[in-house]
Amino acid sequence: MPHTPLPTRESLREVRYDIRGELSRRARELEGQGRHLIRLNIGNPGAFGFRAPDHLQAAIAGNVHESDPYTHQQGLPLAREAIAEFHRHRGTPNATAERVFVGNGVSELIDIALRALLNPGEEVLLPSPDYPLWSAATILNQGRPVYYRCAPEDGFLPDPEQIEKLITPRTRALVVINPNNPTGANYPRELLQQLVQLAAKHKLLLMADEIYDGILYDEAVFTPLAPLAGDVPCLSFGGLSKVWRACGWRVGWAVLSGDPVKVGDYHHAMDLLSALRLCANVPAQFAVPAALTGPETIRELTDPGGRLHESRRAVIESCAASEHLDLVAPSGALYAFPRVIGDAAKGFDDQAFALELLETEDVLVVPGSGFNVPDSRHFRITLLPEAGLIREVFVRIERALGRHAAQARSRHVA
Asked: What pairs with residue 144 in β-bridges?
């Protein structure tokens, strides 16, 4: 009898996650053939030799004996209180442990937050480029992503007037990713204030993805959104994965601020959804107070001479020396988002280029279109490798783009 494929959810056809998609699968095949690849597709510090700070590891080891039972669905009480105190120090209004949700990474909390908010067909304003999980979670929770452009000509910063033109009666939330993944843009205070005004005027929930809040370069200063939002409902996301280099521990949090009356029903909805998954990973939650009250460990990496600062400098200098690349220097986060220019950009297909780079130069990057950028000439790389390896990567990228440019010139002559 014929084999009938098992049907799958139709909305998955609209979901893409190129960071771990077809290119990554092809990379595994090549590695299975014995090829040594340079993987620059994922911001995964542990894969590049970074370690979570010792005092965080000690906090988990010292409390393993307390980790067997489920904890409260919103998270371990001592972890939630530490997060609330961290936000009170920032100036987040009404920051209490009752308004903190701990999840298995920010990724889980984004899904819960959108599921608690959206009815079918309702809209979420997302940056383009975005971190694609935001688009996927919106679609899978029956919402509709609506993109506001963050152009390289504007330093990858959005235009509030353009955002307002996209707002309809079905718009429910405005997502801000700051510092930004994939571009490294850091949003100035004045821009954030304008976004708060938009949210207040149109009764939108602000959703602030601030997972890279401590990873800044040169003179960049991070401005948290919730203190500016005041009574405007705002959900602020953070976690241990990036600033504290503990991706595999899967500890993220979301803090709900704003007028208690306005956010009351939404709080109950998030609490219900949190209860349905019982609780987040318990052992790693014991590291949260140690992280938020312990010694500073990220600045030694991001200050001049630090490993991340020097890798970023290698990217900036390599792009400046390139005939084929342009770069808005990242001010924060763990990524750069170069743009292909000149003859190499003629007829450029970012997906085809990323595959060619993988096949011919053993380098894995993420095409810009994977971040919901139309007609992309961009690709994303992580800043996590050592500076010397970064420079070698750009030698290979320049070689591949040189071939593209030569082919474009040949077509023009013909």
From this structure: 123
What is the C-alpha to C-alpha distance for residues 310 and 275, in angstroms, rounded to an integer? Answer: 44
Q: Hey, how many other C-beta atoms are within 10 angstroms of the C-beta on 78?
A: 15
Q: Does the model's pTM come out above 0.70?
A: yes
Residue 19 DSSP one-character state:
G
| Nearest residue to 215 (alpha-carbon basis) of 175, 253, 183, 179 | 179
Q: Are residues 147 and 289 in the same domain?
A: yes
Q: Is 285 part of any domain? A: yes
Looking at the 3D structure of the chain, how many domains does it have?
2
Task: Identify which of 114, 149, 119 has the alpha carbon closest to the alpha carbon of residue 133.
Answer: 114
> Do residue 268 and residue 358 come from a single domain?
no
Q: Which H or E run includes 290?
A: helix 287-293
Q: 90: part of which helix (H) or strand (E)?
A: helix 77-90
| Whole-number Å distance between alpha carbons of 97 and 79 | 9
Segments forming the whole domain that contains residue 220: 54-293
366-396 tens-digit pLDDT: 999 999 998 889 999 999 999 999 999 999 9
- Main-chain phi, psi angles of 174, to 5 degrees: -120, 120
What is the distance between the alpha carbons of residues 248 and 104, in angstroms, rounded to a whole number? Answer: 10
CATH number of the domain where residue 59 is located: 3.40.640.10
